[in-house]
Automatic annotation (TrEMBL), chain A:
<feature type="transmembrane region" description="Helical">
    <location>
        <begin position="38"/>
        <end position="59"/>
    </location>
</feature>
<feature type="transmembrane region" description="Helical">
    <location>
        <begin position="137"/>
        <end position="157"/>
    </location>
</feature>
<dbReference type="InterPro" id="IPR025966">
    <property type="entry name" value="OppC_N"/>
</dbReference>
<keyword id="KW-0813">Transport</keyword>
<feature type="domain" description="ABC transmembrane type-1">
    <location>
        <begin position="98"/>
        <end position="287"/>
    </location>
</feature>
<dbReference type="InterPro" id="IPR035906">
    <property type="entry name" value="MetI-like_sf"/>
</dbReference>
<keyword id="KW-1003">Cell membrane</keyword>
<dbReference type="GO" id="GO:0055085">
    <property type="term" value="P:transmembrane transport"/>
</dbReference>
<dbReference type="Pfam" id="PF00528">
    <property type="entry name" value="BPD_transp_1"/>
</dbReference>
TrEMBL record, chain B:
<dbReference type="InterPro" id="IPR039424">
    <property type="entry name" value="SBP_5"/>
</dbReference>
<protein>
    <submittedName>
        <fullName>Peptide/nickel transport system substrate-binding protein</fullName>
    </submittedName>
</protein>
<dbReference type="GO" id="GO:1904680">
    <property type="term" value="F:peptide transmembrane transporter activity"/>
</dbReference>
<dbReference type="GO" id="GO:0015833">
    <property type="term" value="P:peptide transport"/>
</dbReference>
<dbReference type="InterPro" id="IPR000914">
    <property type="entry name" value="SBP_5_dom"/>
</dbReference>
<dbReference type="InterPro" id="IPR030678">
    <property type="entry name" value="Peptide/Ni-bd"/>
</dbReference>
<keyword id="KW-0732">Signal</keyword>
<feature type="signal peptide">
    <location>
        <begin position="1"/>
        <end position="25"/>
    </location>
</feature>
<feature type="domain" description="Solute-binding protein family 5">
    <location>
        <begin position="77"/>
        <end position="435"/>
    </location>
</feature>
Length: 301, 516
């Protein structure tokens, strides 16, 4: 009985809010690939993912092997991006760093997305005192500059990739919580939600089965853009010397230590900088493309 | 209305022009040859040698004041200054100084035994105030000061302490201040300095400049250039630009990254070794590095000259000894454990060492401008070639000092900047009971014995030999791996003649002149 009613409610919901799901997805996809920027972003992200996964097979050198006799070599055929202060191959280190940047970026967003969505859903759906308490805590977190908050978390947790994920993930929670809460507030009074409630669905089921799927598009867009800012935050922490423990290669860390050699060995600074820029740009392009594709108003008819 | 405005504009422009012209004319009337301009990065904290502990104050102080003893021009050997000679009693407790006669302070007060007594008693236990950072370091051993006659001072110490003589040559606490000036200024001459030196104080515009002029009543050779201006230019690159424009004649506080810029502009970079040592320390109480043979093998794995060359790009000298070459007691016969990768690998494999716990600091230090992190990573690279993995933990400086004190590490990185140019100041680090000084927790009976002897021995070749033995003791036990002596970088324009930057980080301007 419950399931049947559910199906009815779902169908109703689909009719009210959405068109047929498959056709919507298809339409979204076409809209996305019509956007050149988004395609470029997607291609770069796919390439970066390949590099992150299979990078160790294409690295010309061990990224952590230092040969002090060849420190500060300009880019050459042997060392495409030159060598750093300790005579390590910058090209190999940048490839190695892709892994860390993407891992931290994606895991941090996954963490903040999960916690943020749950908190936002509870606050938005329940309302009242719970809403006030949760959202005021989120407001407090937003009032502190995010990088400062991340530094504070890192100082408390110590160094390491896992700690960076936690620090950056925690800092981003309020953004997701607010978005989800806002979306839920706007859909929770819809008829299909009321119907789901009338047929006796539990709150948990209503939120996850009936409400969240309808706010998914905003979350996906936010998460994609969130990855780019998480990558940037990771680099910022690394730049400040709070990222990974040596000798691991991390773009921000490479950038930070190259700062002193900006005039004498600019290539130590330029290449990690380009790597960060390209990654952030790719996620931003994809995020923008997704937003346009998912927003029916901006879609071309 | 319009005409009124126009007239006003013309009048204002003319007034401005006149102002500029007079300013230029004033500048032109002073021959630039007569003024040496030295730019530094920060305002002095003050100009009373008893009340400051920073290098920026020290550079100005040494041109206004003098002490009983001074350092030689290119080392920290001792030379007479306001004291013409001194004798030390056989028991090493009584120092008798014969003072130079006819010396006057810049305010006309006589320099005599009473003035010396006044200066020392001001900083002795009981009289010294909280804000006298070096009083205890310099005069802590003194129990009594007597003015035997106008030109003889007798100082009694509570214990034998040859470094006391070196302390008297320091730019902190030791320089003699006019007692009259101190009385007049409520025991604080930070802004009204009066000494016996070649330059006297004229004016201090806070955060801008300090102006000194020649002391024409100076007892020794009078200063070559009439005026001296210490300009404060905070930003490092702005200071370099000021030098390259010819706006200032000399600068310090620069690092290796701007050397090319300075030399390309036709100026000269001066780079003597500094009074410091940058070292890697083994924790002699750790289970791995407690064994001397393991320490030696680890040291053998590291090619120090190669590391120093690449990490510091020529702005540091690889260290074979703890003592810098200009400190008495330095011996060029001491050599570090030689680089030998194969021997190291074999020894470490035999000892079963596969990982070591390394802690280091994240920031640059004066003795290690490349940061402790870069240095640790370089060592990590070398040790990986002999099959040893380094687990490096990087901390900010404050946390790092606590970690070093706590002692949970096999290898750490540290350094020392000398205070007084005495070998004991460096070598006694390894005899200190405090683990934040003696980070290796080295406790060797022979070493402690030699340190005690060195403290008591009279100045001279015999004493120097003791310090050579101490160096050898350290090498034999591989307690540290001395890495480098960082250079002191300063720069000057070619018009400056007789430039030298003292190894203690001071600049003595009285012997310098300008060709135009």
């Amino acid at each position: 009985m419950q399931n049947e009613l559910d199906a009815v409610v779902n169908e109703q919901a689909s009719e009210v809010v959405l068109e047929k799901p498959e056709s919507q997805l298809k339409e979204m996809w076409f809209s996305l690939i019509a956007n050149k920027g988004a395609v470029a972003g997607l291609v770069i992200i796919l390439l970066l993912t390949l590099v992150a996964v299979f990078g160790r097979f294409i690295m010309p050198y061990d990224p952590n092997y230092s040969d002090m006799t060849i420190s500060f070599q300009s880019p050459s055929a042997a060392h495409w991006f030159g060598t750093d202060q300790l005579g390590r191959d910058i090209f190999s280190r940048i490839i190695d760093g892709t892994h860390i940047s993407l891992t931290v970026g994606i895991s941090a967003v996954a963490l903040s997305l999960t916690i943020g969505t749950i908190l936002g859903a509870i606050a938005g759906y329940r309302g009242g005192k719970i809403d006030t308490v949760i959202m005021r805590i989120m407001d407090m977190m937003l009032a502190i500059p995010s990088i400062l908050l991340a530094i504070a978390f890192m100082a408390a947790l110590g160094k390491g990739i896992d700690k960076a994920v936690i620090a950056i993930g925690l800092v981003c929670i309020p953004e997701y919580a607010r978005i989800v809460r806002g979306c839920i507030l706007s859909v929770k009074e819809n008829d299909y939600v009321q119907a789901a409630r009338v047929v006796g669905n539990k709150d948990f089921r209503i939120v996850f089965k009936h409400i969240l799927p309808n706010v998914l598009s905003s979350i996906v867009v936010r998460a994609t853009l969130g990855i780019s800012s998480a990558v940037l935050d990771t680099a910022a922490l690394g730049f400040l010397g709070l990222g990974v423990q040596p000798p691991f290669a991390e773009w921000g860390d490479m950038l930070g230590r190259a700062r002193g050699f900006i005039f004498s060995a600019p290539y130590t600074l330029i290449f990690p900088g380009i790597a960060i820029t390209i990654t952030v740009l790719a996620f931003n392009l994809l995020g923008d493309g997704l937003r346009d594709a998912l927003d029916p108003k901006s879609r071309k008819i | 209305m319009n005409t009124v405005k126009k007239v006003l504009a013309v009048v204002l422009a003319a007034a401005l022009l006149c102002l500029t012209l007079t300013a230029c004319a004033q500048g032109a009337s002073n021959d630039p040859k007569d003024t040496l301009i030295f730019a530094q990065g920060a305002d002095p904290r003050g100009l009373d040698p008893a009340l400051v502990d920073d290098g920026e104050s020290s550079k100005v102080i040494v041109n206004i004041y003098e002490g009983l003893i001074k350092y030689a021009k290119d080392s920290t050997k001792l030379e007479p200054c306001l004291a013409e000679s001194w004798t030390v009693s056989d028991d090493g407790l009584t120092y008798t100084f014969k003072l130079r006669q006819g010396v006057k302070f810049q305010d006309g007060t006589d320099f005599n035994a009473d003035a010396v007594k006044f200066n020392i008693e001001r900083q002795m236990k009981g009289n010294a105030t909280e804000d006298m950072p070096y009083a205890d370091f310099v005069y802590g051993y003194v129990t009594k000061v007597e003015a035997k006659d106008a030109n003889t001072v007798v100082i009694t110490l509570k214990d034998k302490c040859t470094p006391f003589l070196y302390n008297l040559a320091m730019s902190m606490a030791a320089p003699m201040v006019s007692p009259e000036a101190l009385k007049k200024n409520n025991n604080n001459v930070n802004e009204a300095p009066v000494g016996t030196g070649p330059y006297k104080f004229v004016r201090w515009d806070k955060e801008q400049s300090i102006v000194l002029t020649r002391n024409d009543n100076y007892w020794g050779e009078k200063a070559k250039t009439k005026n001296v201006i210490f300009r404060i230019i905070k930003d490092n690159s702005a200071r370099v630009v000021a030098l390259n424009n010819g706006e200032v004649d000399m600068i310090d506080g620069i690092d290796a990254t701007v050397v090319d810029e300075i030399t390309k502009a036709g100026n000269t970079v001066d780079q003597p070794d500094g009074m410091n040592i940058n070292y890697m320390a083994y924790n002699t109480q750790s289970s791995i590095c407690g064994k001397p043979e393991v320490r030696k093998a680890l040291s053998q794995a590291i090619n120090v000259p190669e590391l120093v060359k690449s990490l510091y790009q020529g702005y540091a000298t690889p260290a074979d000894t703890i003592l810098p070459s200009f400190v008495p007691g330095f011996s060029k016969d001491i050599k570090q454990v030689a680089y030998d990768e194969a021997a190291s690998k074999a020894a470490l494999a035999q000892a079963g060492v596969t990982t070591v716990h390394v802690i280091t600091y994240s920031n640059p230090r004066p003795y290690n401008p490349a940061t402790g992190k870069a240095l640790a990573e370089a060592v990590q690279g070398y040790l990986s070639k002999v099959g040893v993995t380094c687990n490096i933990e990087v901390f900010d400086w404050t946390t790092y000092k606590q970690k070093v004190k706590a002692g949970d590490f096999d290898i750490c990185f540290y350094g020392w900047t000398g205070d007084n140019g005495d070998p004991d100041n460096f070598m006694s680090l390894l005899s200190d009971k405090d683990p934040s000084m003696n980070v290796s927790r080295y406790d060797n009976a022979a070493y402690l014995d030699l340190i005690a002897k060195g403290k008591a021995a009279a100045e001279g070749a015999d004493r120097d030999a003791i310090y050579a033995q101490l160096e050898q003791n350290q090498v034999d036990n591989s307690v540290w791996l001395p890495i480098s002596h960082s250079k002191l970088l300063s720069a000057y324009r070619p018009v400056v003649q007789g430039y030298y930057y003292h190894v203690t980080g001071n600049i003595f301007l009285s012997g310098m002149s300008k060709t135009k």
